[in-house]
Amino acid sequence: MDWGKDLISSWNRKWLSLENTISIKISNILKCNENEIYVGSSTSENLYKLLKSILINNSKIKSIISDNLNFPSDNYVAEGIAKDFKDVTFKLLDYGNEAEANIDKLKEFISKNNGILILSLVSYKSSYRYPIKEINDYCENNNSIVIWDISHAIGAIDIDFHNTNTKYAVGCTYKYLNGGPGSPAIIYVNEKEQNILKTPIRGWFSHNSPFDFSNNYEESNSMSRFKSGSPNIIQLSALEKGLDIILEAGTIKLEKKSIELFNLFNKIFNSHLSEKGYNLITPIKDSDRGSHITISHKESWRISKCLSSPKGRDKKILIDFRPNKFIRISLTPLYTSFEDIYNLTKRLFDIVKRKEYMNHDNEKPTLT
């Protein structure tokens, strides 16, 4: 509507300020300052820009470390960047399981490999949640930096960047923030750390005065340094409505409901599902868990097909399958109901009891 009516005059009327409007709303969700947030690009691009900008401006850093619970894309980015620097190595800590971190092992790994640590606040597979302040404080005392990926956390659990001493983070907005696929990602940098950073991707909008069209590059001294091209107005406009709903509900209340949804699931799981061969992978303790549930079964894939593509009159239930054996259930507290939990657990029980999975083959599509 803006483009059809006002064409390029929409830039001055609304569009140029839209990124700032979104940044303010995200800063309220993360309990940080609006000048500490950049909105745009994808999570992988933002991790690339942030990680490389830290390395460019700190030649003493020789290690980038991560663990096997981190989202693979983050590790791809980190390993690739390490190869761009002669003396920087990428190292991965493997806990020997896909469910939870061993914090003592992680601390030992940090102490032996001071540098930059990249972790997902909530693990994409198991929903394990790291003790964010404990890790931040430990790294600060051991000459290390943490970059948190909050993609599987923001909008579903309460996050307080300032009270947890968080300095750097990236994340997406298309999950619990309701932006949908393709919505812009974010970068967070505590304002005390911003002056030492220089963007690795110089672009029109990262210039201090982009509309002067100068031939000499002068980098913005704000989070705008991470911008490159024009902002995606359609995506930002759609995202704003999703953020408004989150802010109206409040992340404290959303996390409370997420806990209640899990407790109901866990109660039914213990009384009915464990006897049917299901295993609960997600941590039980509230502070150790995000807002999705992961279970496994020897027939996980075919059970997933029964849920998402029922052959009878049963309603379709959308879940995620994660290789090689995990069924991932999203507890989106804004609209997941307690009735939804009951219906899901009943279907999980019935599928195994009736051996419905025998009606499906093991063929997998590209996206599961």
Automatic annotation (TrEMBL):
Signal peptide positions on this chain: none
Assigned GO CC terms: cytoplasm
InterPro entries in alphabetical order: Kynureninase, PyrdxlP-dep_Trfase, PyrdxlP-dep_Trfase_major, PyrdxlP-dep_Trfase_small
GO terms, biological process: anthranilate metabolic process; L-tryptophan catabolic process to kynurenine; NAD+ biosynthetic process
UniProt xrefs under PANTHER family: KYNURENINASE
GO MF annotation terms: kynureninase activity; pyridoxal phosphate binding
Protein name stated in the entry: Uncharacterized protein
Keywords carried by this UniProt record: Hydrolase, Pyridine nucleotide biosynthesis, Pyridoxal phosphate
